[in-house]
Amino acid sequence: MTSFLAALASSFPPGQLATDQLQLAAHAADQGPVLEHYLPVAVVFAERVEDVQAVMRLASEHAVSVVVRGAGTGVSGGAHATEGCVVLSLERMNRILEIHSEDEIARVEPGVVNADLNAAVAEYGLMYAPDPASYRTSTIGGNIATNAGGLRCAKYGVTRESVLALDVVLADGTLIHTGHRTFKGVAGYDLTGLFVGSEGTLGIVVGATVRLRYLPTAVETIAAFFPEFTTAAAGVLAVGKARVQPAIMELLDGNTLVQLDEEQGSDLRSRGGALLLIQTDGFAARTEAEIIRRELSALGGTITTEDHEEAVRLVELRRHSRGAEVDDDFRVGEDGAVPRSQLVHYIAELQRIAAVHGVGLKVVAHAGDGNLHPTFWVGAGEAGKVPALNAALDESIDVGLALGGTITGEHGVGQYKVRWLPREQREEVLELQRRIKALFDPQALLNPGKALPEAIDA
Amino acid sequence: MTSFLAALASSFPPGQLATDQLQLAAHAADQGPVLEHYLPVAVVFAERVEDVQAVMRLASEHAVSVVVRGAGTGVSGGAHATEGCVVLSLERMNRILEIHSEDEIARVEPGVVNADLNAAVAEYGLMYAPDPASYRTSTIGGNIATNAGGLRCAKYGVTRESVLALDVVLADGTLIHTGHRTFKGVAGYDLTGLFVGSEGTLGIVVGATVRLRYLPTAVETIAAFFPEFTTAAAGVLAVGKARVQPAIMELLDGNTLVQLDEEQGSDLRSRGGALLLIQTDGFAARTEAEIIRRELSALGGTITTEDHEEAVRLVELRRHSRGAEVDDDFRVGEDGAVPRSQLVHYIAELQRIAAVHGVGLKVVAHAGDGNLHPTFWVGAGEAGKVPALNAALDESIDVGLALGGTITGEHGVGQYKVRWLPREQREEVLELQRRIKALFDPQALLNPGKALPEAIDA
Question: Per the database record, which ranges form the FAD-binding PCMH-type domain (chains A, B) (predicted)?
């Protein structure tokens, strides 16, 4: 390790290399629950593609593992430091290299913040559609690593659908280019799609060509308060039955409203026990909103047609409904998705599970695509209740899978959910993925212990 | 080979196994140009997943290569028989297993015809969006193998965006399941995306869960005739600049109009030198159509607001603009895509190339996503002109790539375009794909010689 650190020090100026405790600690974890805490041996701040290649060449030579990191806003521990690793930060590679209005694409470095790209392309009447709740701080590279979703994906698709081409540094330092600048292209296997969502375990994304969409001319927001969460969830299906595709369809339960009120001084909880927040956009925004209001009123929803300012405020509140909280031993946010028809049933099950295990529960959901973010908690510091919390988490995973769901809709497996993956995927599918991992990263240097469980006999 | 055929005969009843010359010849090629003609040694008609597994187990044991086939409507030779292969037809696996209206998904066997699925889900107000021109005859399995596009993909995405989960039989006969029933899901690597578009070289798709979209409430069609093809192409950019996303945006040149007139008795060519055919759909169809008409009129287009019947007829004409022709030595249709801004320039280059080499040219384009289908031809039987035809094809590929394009937007590499792939992708990227292929198919049994070029030293 000493020789590796010496080699780093001779390759990078002090401003790009940190080994002090403060910086190591600051780059040791993302916002996900920490199972085992490690400090990296060093943090390298890459400023160009060649820096990333240099780190990988040294890491390969010295057999040191590399954890790549963007803004560190992930919530599954995908960027947690592992034992003896170097953390490679791509935050400084934050240049928008090109915006081409007629081609409707942008080329960016991985450290570009999602909101910065959106601000830059808005001048051209364009938008970058994937919008995780962290869009103000998270990077495009991190979004790609997790195949991030967000609020708008029911209509516009997840990150994968907006990534056309990638520049990727492989484990041995080789730089490759995958994909195409065109919207369509089927030459060769879909390597681009394989890298998207691979959580830094197959290669390091150092550049991306992304497809842009048209910034909607009009946006309408509908806030519908319901007495019960389950009735609000039924509203999601009613909108679907009317064959209207909203851009955003978010469901917030009573406990989430209470928390928002406490943090923001709002009065949401007094207006209902659950909030269904819907945005339509585009040339038919108003027509679609009228249909939705009619459907939700018929279900007993109290519809507020928010004015624009209030609408923006509510959506922003929803985006920040995780608040300042970071998951820990006493509070864990989940990310399962279930088929849309199971939403109502799954939410009832979550409430049952929380009651049985005596733990707290609040739920927000990207309801349009059946992706739920339940948060289970016990009192901070109540170590005796942690087993109940974990039992509730495990049971919620099993029930979601039994309903045809997945353990992670958009946050990624990271480190925290590795233990649940074998509940969803059979051993032969896991083994196929391990072999792909070994093909791309034979020394197992890239983000070890993330995304995939070790082989049973390992 | 005799022992393999004997093993097949003891595994399948005569009705599922053909070795007569008529059937072998009928299953020897798809609609792509044939570089080397081979008859398969046998054709097996699978009726269930177990049949596919049985074929792969026998093929592995006897080291016989397997060419999988749906309806045989591919145009890149992806389903051409290769020397000593067995052709495995999935046409009889044509059951729609489930349509779930609330989940907005369908589960199908691979032999289901695209149009049959669309007819079945239309009753629920849903549609399966990918619509290759062959949708009346091509199968979902074939669409998945090529990651087929179609007319509607600028708005609704290509096949990849509609495939949620797959059942795949691997080379050794193992059955695996990839993906999820939910719209979103990021557990593990994107194996589903890796199989989509892999042209039967990594595994055999025996089942698919597909996402359905809402059948549009309204459709508006705009037919705009322009004197010149290049001005019509400029219209595509004008619509984009107005930030309107049509469902369909097809461009037909004068020679295509002449051919349609001859085959269909229409009078299209007399109305202009190029036709831009645009459909908007959904609740804003009329508003969007009005904007488009205004933009195209300003560019000098002659706008015909077609009545519904005429609109359907024009779109159907476009879908069949390949006519009954099948590519051969004297006529080859291409499938490149270029960035949208290069459309006008590329079309002018195609016209220049055709003139220089003295070959015929007609062009249709899915203009919304820059995907062009130029057809170059010489007189049938004029063997002396074939070198000029091939020179024109090669040059059109090189020019498209120089403009930032790809050699295939939606038809796939198949057998015919293998020689062009190294012009688009660098050796290290090809080698990575060869290693993935070797991982999935170590005996190289699945569709050999397709999708990827052999290694240079092979």
Answer: 36-215
Interval B349-366 mean pLDDT: 96
> What's the whole-number average pLDDT of chain B?
94
Q: Mind telling me how many Å the CA of B82 is from chain A's nearest CA? A: 20
Q: Is residue B67 part of a domain?
A: yes
Which of A318-327, A380-389, B206-215 has the lowest average pLDDT?
A: A318-327
Which phi and psi angles does B47 have, rounded to 5°? -115, -15
Structural domains in chain B (count):
4
Tell me, yes or no, whether B128 lies in a domain.
yes
Distance CA B104, CA B114 (A): 17
DSSP A133: T
The Cα of A2 is separated from the nearest Cα of chain B by a number of Å equal to 33
- What's A124's domain CATH number? 3.30.465.10
B288 contacts A287? CB cut-off 8 A:
no
**Domain C-terminal end among A40, A62, A89:** A89
Hey, are the CB atoms on B428 and A176 less than 8 Å from each other? Answer: yes
What SS3 state is found at B111?
Answer: coil
On whether both A64 and A131 belong to a single domain, the answer is no
Q: Which residue among B182, B406, B428 sits closest to A339, beta carbon to beta carbon?
A: B182
Contact (CB<8Å) A413/B187: yes
Chain B residues within an 8 Å CB radius of A217: 243
Q: Is A140 among the domain residues?
A: yes
Q: Which residues of B touch A406 (CB under 8 A)?
A: 180, 182, 184-187
**A361 min Cα distance to partner chain B (Å):** 23
A31 closest CA partner among A162, A161, A133, A170: A133
Instruction: State the CATH number of the domain containing residue A13.
Output: 3.30.43.10
Answer yes or no: do A103 and A205 share one domain.
yes
Cα B154 to chain centroid, rounded: 15
Q: Which residues have C-beta within 8 Å of that of residue B275, sequence separation ≥ 6? A: B223, B224, B225, B226, B232, B251, B252, B257, B268
Does residue A371 sit in the same domain as residue A261?
no
Same domain assignment for residues B267 and B309: yes
Say if residue A311's pLDDT is above 80: no
Q: Tell which residue, B308, B311, B312, B323, has the closest CA to residue B256.
A: B323
A389 within domain boundaries: yes
Q: What is the pLDDT of residue B323?
A: 58
Q: Are residue B397 and residue B371 in the same domain, yes or no?
A: yes
Instruction: Round to whole Å and give the CA distance between B87 and B66.
Output: 6
The ipTM of this complex is 0.96
Q: What is the DSSP letter of B420?
A: G
Indicate the residue among A70, A89, A108 that finishes a domain.
A89
Residues in B closer than 8 angstroms to A432, CB to CB, are 176, 191, 440
The pLDDT-based confidence of A309 (bands split at 50, 70, 90) is confident
Residue of B nearest to A284 (CA): B284
SS3 (DSSP) at B194: helix
Does B43 share its domain with B144? no
Q: How far apart are CA B229 and CA A442, in angstroms?
A: 52
- Closest CB to B339 among A146, A160, A181: A181
Give the CATH number, domain containing residue A301: 3.30.70.3450
The answer to whether the CB atoms of B436 and A435 lie below 8 A apart is no
Which candidate in B189, B191, B219, B345 is best for mutational testing of the A interface (most A CBs within 10 A)?
Answer: B189
Check whether residue A100 and residue A26 sit in a common domain.
Answer: no
Q: Which domain holds residue A270?
A: 219-319
CATH number for the domain spanning B346: value is: 3.30.70.2740
Residues B292 and B269 in one domain: yes
Cβ separation of A157 and B160 shorter than 8 Å?
no
